[in-house]
Design a protein that fits this description.
Blueprint (H helix, E strand, L loop, with lengths): L3 E6 L6 H11 L12 E6 L15 H14 L2 E4 L11 H11 L1 H8 L2 E2 L5 E5 L8 E5 H5 L2 E11 L3 E3 L1 H4 L9 H7 L3 H15 L3 E11 L7 E11 L2 H12 L7 H9 L10 E3 L3 H4 L13 H9 L2 H7 L1 E5 L9 H5 L5 E4 L2 E4 L9 H5 L5 E5 L1 H12 L1
Parallel strand pairs: 1-11, 2-3, 2-7, 3-4, 7-9
Antiparallel strand pairs: 1-10, 5-6, 7-8, 9-10, 12-15, 13-14
Length: 386
């Protein structure tokens, strides 16, 4: 049954190897998902060059544990991810991200390889409901199968990032902003992510929820201890359970709303069979969602206001000049090129900003914050009180 989600309690990363074995045993063992001599890609979430203690990326202990289990089967295994918008897809980026995120250590501990292949393939996907063509990094294109190693985090644009959103990392480097530029509405971007996830079709998705991220994720939020490892053959099912852990209303989850619109099942928690934990075990009562998530009433208001007024109802990225180093990452990540570097500080043309929050997502110096205007604050306060 592809709608099963397996869950084990894992209080810390020192116990990941033991707990990962327990998790995979619930799922029937790694041999259910990989076979000897197959080419298998381990695809973690490596958003940027951030140390493991920042909890921006999938923890190296999780990657190493999965690598060991795959290697025991005798599969030919590599670790690879194309970092977030603003990072070129080249060897220098790989070296920086792998070393900083602890992937070099994970590879050494597990005996698997790091891929430095910078090529990509243009693929046709006629089955896509929205997107019929993707650029896919070559190791994924040539692999027999992929294991999706995601991280439970909030996300300013998509509300949360998990198994479905992690598939976006198979798109090479600076190609990513193009998707944001073309798909500015959340529903359209969510539709693209679903098409991409169906193309990638991970054999297994495993979520690092030992320590997740709450607040202004996927980079500038705060680490939050949750103590779970989760796995599923269905990435959408895994994200539904992750949303329950976070207390994210499904109406504020664009991927689930698009899945429901397409008639995809599962699209709600009632469609999922939980193995290893009960629904009542999961919910974190005071988990902090990103400031871009409005309550249901606020979303109904957004649906009826004009596009011009919609800007007033949304959060906008603001540069904190004292923290800005003029590194240019936000400028390079911006899909519509409305960020410039002037007098050694980044400047945002808010009139033409599309509110994708790529700049906020990729800033490594916490120099970009999200602020709502007076109208936004008034209605957000009102809907939180309802």
């Amino acid at each position: 049954m592809r709608n099963k989600v397996y869950i084990v309690h894992c209080p810390n990363y020192e116990q990941v190897i033991e707990k990962m074995t327990e998790l995979l045993k619930l799922a029937g063992g790694m041999e259910q998902f990989v076979h000897k001599d197959e080419k298998i890609v381990l695809k973690p979430n490596l958003l940027m060059a951030a140390a493991p203690e920042k909890h921006v990326s999938t923890h190296p202990a999780v990657v190493a544990a999965v690598g060991k289990l795959v290697k025991r089967i005798g599969a030919k295994t590599v670790i690879i991810d194309s970092a977030g918008s603003g990072y070129p897809h080249n060897k220098k980026t790989f070296e920086r991200v792998y070393n900083k995120c602890g992937m070099a250590d994970a590879a050494a501990l597990s005996g698997v390889s790091l891929s430095y292949d910078t090529s990509y393939q243009v693929v046709s996907y006629p089955q896509g409901k929205l997107i019929k063509r993707f650029e896919i990094i070559s190791p994924v294109y040539h692999a027999d199968g992929l294991i999706n190693l995601c991280k439970l985090k909030t996300h300013g644009f998509m509300s949360m990032t998990g198994a479905i959103k992690n598939c976006f990392g198979v798109i090479p480097g600076l190609t990513k902003p193009g998707y944001h530029a073309k798909l500015q509405k959340k529903a359209l971007f969510a539709g693209m992510l679903l098409d991409l996830a169906y193309y990638v079709s991970p054999r297994l998705s495993i979520m690092d929820a030992v320590i997740g991220m709450e607040g202004e994720g996927p980079n500038a939020g705060n680490p939050r201890h949750l103590g779970w490892l989760l796995a599923s053959a269905n990435p959408l099912a895994l994200d539904i359970v992750a949303g329950e852990i976070m207390g994210l209303d499904r109406k504020n989850n664009p991927v689930l709303m698009e899945a429901e619109k397409r008639g995809i099942i599962p699209n709600r928690l009632e469609d999922i069979e939980l193995v290893g934990a009960k629904k009542t075990d999961l919910r974190v009562q005071d988990f902090k969602l990103p400031s871009t998530v409005l309550r249901e009433t606020g979303n109904r208001l957004l649906a009826i206001v004009s596009p011009l007024m919609r800007q007033s109802f949304s959060m906008r990225p603001v540069i904190i000049e004292d923290k800005c180093t003029a590194c240019g990452t936000c400028r390079d990540a911006c899909p519509v090129h409305v960020i410039t570097i002037e007098n050694k500080v980044a400047k945002i043309d808010n009139k033409n900003c599309i509110r994708c929050y790529c700049c906020h997502e990729m800033c490594q110096h916490d120099a970009i914050t999200l602020q709502g205007g007076t109208i936004y604050r008034m209605f957000n306060k009102t809907t939180h009180e309802l």
